[in-house]
Amino acid sequence: MTDAWFENVIESDGIDGEGCRRSEAMTLKLYLRDEISIDQASQQLALPTETCALPGDPLIYLWGVLQDAMVELPHSAQKITPLLLQLQKRPDVRLREEQRTDALSDKQWTLWNDLPGFANMWYDMHWWYYGSQWRVDKLRFENQDAVVNIPRIAVADALLSVSGILGERAKAEGLARLAHTLEDEDAVLRVEILILREWLLNAGDMLFGMCRDGFQHDLLDNSVELEKKSVGKPRRELWKEDSDASLPRWQFWKQRLGNIEQDMELEDDVRVAARVCLEVMGQY
């Protein structure tokens, strides 16, 4: 976590300069280094936006630096997620009509309680991750540099989902990852098993609870339902039962992970990650 990273995210000079305010970058640096409290950080981040004439535009840049930090600075997601929740608790500022621009253009959004635009920006920035582009462009993701940030995105994705910041649909994403990887013969395990590891480490309680409670969502469709909705080869062909999350499905995923861990033809990193996943799932 070098000083240079924080300097690079500060808005550049000129009319088209992009980036966050210097004060925001410095506040984030102090908070991530445990030099100020979460209360101090939330107040110092909020005040410049609360008091400016048009808060919608700088709000987008604030979300941007927080999201970049969650992925690019190791272990930052664990601290930024509660910081976002702290911002949500701030008293909302009454906005005039002319202030409703950019992130605040939707009249139903408040300045802090809704974290306006945060979830949309997150999904837009990581569309390729949600679309599992490593299955489409396999050559590109054979390069380790293209893979290095994927587990970090998964950590943030899991933490933001558990917190509710990304909305209800996001809570199904972790279960969908398990199904997509462990029920599909086309899974790119060297990438996808790393995502499962981070989801289970950071959201295992939630995922197991959803299976125990019979959670339902179209993201969990089995091969039969997926075949009805799409053209081409069915997916998730290894799972033959209902589309609901369930304890039998949880057990099936554990069995598949056990097979992966024992497969000596796979890379060591894949097998080790599978073992970690099994250890977490074995706690429930």
Question: What integer is the average pLDDT?
Answer: 90
Work out the helicity level.
55-70%
Poorly predicted parts: none
Query: Radius of gyration in whole Å, from Cα?
Result: 21 Å
**How many structurally independent domains?**
2
**Helix-strand pattern, N to C?**
HHHHHHHHHHHHHHH
Class inferred from helices and paired strands: mainly alpha
Number of continuous helical runs: 15
Q: Give a count of the beta strands, DSSP E runs of length 2 or more.
A: 0
Q: Name the overall outline.
A: globular
Question: How would you characterize this protein structure?
Answer:
It is a single chain. By secondary structure, the chain is an all-alpha fold. The protein folds into two domains: 3-99; 140-281, no CATH class. The protein is 58% helix and 0% strand. The chain has helices at residues 3-8, 22-32, 38-50, 56-72, 77-88, 118-125, 127-130, 144-147, 150-163, 168-171, 173-182, 189-212, 223-229, 247-262, 268-281.
Key phrases:
single chain; 284 residues; mainly alpha; 2 domains; globular; Oxopyrrolidines_Biosynth-assoc; OpdG
